[in-house]
Write a sequence for this structure.
């Protein structure tokens, strides 16, 4: 594991985008595992700059996102599909047909999860997985539990996650209580993992996740077992 602490969110974003850019340049048909939340926004802005100035070409890239709220369509501005379209996909030359986000409105969510894992397998797995981390240690929406779940699955969001994510919604009651998330198998099988976190409020959970015991109570701690993990943290 490489744990890199930097002095600003801007620097974190430039470094993270640099790692993703290197992946895109060295393997133009990479499968990128992408994340939502506030942390990756700066990284995506840097990637857009790279596209605009002609350094990066996403035409052969495929993306698979980690998760989606159950019950929100892609047109809902709180959905993760909407987030990805509006923070990245619309501004680069990725082929929309090669961007995958779990469908939180599928009639059969268990079948949707199985199909999502099958899709990732068919694509040959993820080359580089970008992650954020929740205050309770969740990655994607893999919440603290008694065991790690391997497959893409539906989760009940924990109170603290609903609370933390309510800042993006008009009211707390609008936050969905369930989500569909990639499980640990696709994340751990990614060839490289890049986790970004910023803010003093993430300090304690990073300490637990990367310097404490490996336990499903701190889902991100499983990443300590990943052979190619980079964590970039900025307290400011
Ligand atoms: C959400 C997402 C996670 C993300 C987390 C942290 O719950 N499902 O993938 O890592 O938020 O978000 P932020 O980066 O805003 O702290």
């Amino acid at each position: 594991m490489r744990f890199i602490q930097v002095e600003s969110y801007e620097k974190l974003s430039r470094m993270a985008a640099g790692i993703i850019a290197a992946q895109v340049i060295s393997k133009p048909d990479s499968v990128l595992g992408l994340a939502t939340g506030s942390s990756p926004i700066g990284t995506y802005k840097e990637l857009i700059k790279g596209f605009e100035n002609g350094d990066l070409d996403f035409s052969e890239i495929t993306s698979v996102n980690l998760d989606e709220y159950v019950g929100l369509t892609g047109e809902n501005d709180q959905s993760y599909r909407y987030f990805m379209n509006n923070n990245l996909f619309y501004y680069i030359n990725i082929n929309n047909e090669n961007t995958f986000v779990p469908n939180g409105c599928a009639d059969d969510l268990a079948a949707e999860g199985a199909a999502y894992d099958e899709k990732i397998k068919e694509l040959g797995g993820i080359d580089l997985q970008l992650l954020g981390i929740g205050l309770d240690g969740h990655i994607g929406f893999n919440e603290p539990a008694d065991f790690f779940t391997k497959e893409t699955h539906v989760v009940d969001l924990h109170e603290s996650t609903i609370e933390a994510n309510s800042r993006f919604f008009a009211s707390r009651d609008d936050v969905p209580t369930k989500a569909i998330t990639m499980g640990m198998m696709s994340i751990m099988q990614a060839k490289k993992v890049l986790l970004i976190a910023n803010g003093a409020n993430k300090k304690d959970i990073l300490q637990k996740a990367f310097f404490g015991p490996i336990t499903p109570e701190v889902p991100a701690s499983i990443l300590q077992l990943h052979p190619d993990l980079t964590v970039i943290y900025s307290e400011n």
